[in-house]
Amino acid sequence: MVRKTSVLVVDDDSSMRLAMARVLKRHGYEVTSTSSPVQAIDALSARSWDAMVTDIRMPGLSGHELLREALAL
Q1: How far, in Å, CA of 65 to CA of 56, rounded?
Q2: Sign of CA dihedral 20, 9, 21, 2
Q3: How far is CA 6 from the centre of its chain?
């Protein structure tokens, strides 16, 4: 059995987050989505991911700051 590529989707806008997750799932990806960068850091710490799609402007941490945090894990 082939493992699906895992993608973490991070966006505070629920409609954008759900739309991105829906498209990725339709193309066969394993998708987990979260609405905040803090939740994303928890998810990134809990396991490894093949890819992350993130919004740039979010409350708390920006997408750029989240990427720096993810690379430091």
Answers
A1: 9
A2: positive
A3: 9
Overall pTM > 0.70: yes
Residues in the chain, how many?
A: 73
Question: Mean pLDDT per 10-residue run, the chain (73 residues)?
Answer: 93 98 98 96 96 95 94 92
Tell me if 72 sits within 8 A of 27, measured CB to CB: no
**Rounded to 5, what percent of the chain is helix, strand, coil?**
45, 20, 35
Partner residues linked to 6 by β-bridges: 30
Under 8 Å between Cβ of 50 and 7: yes
The CA distance from 52 to 67, in Å, is: 9
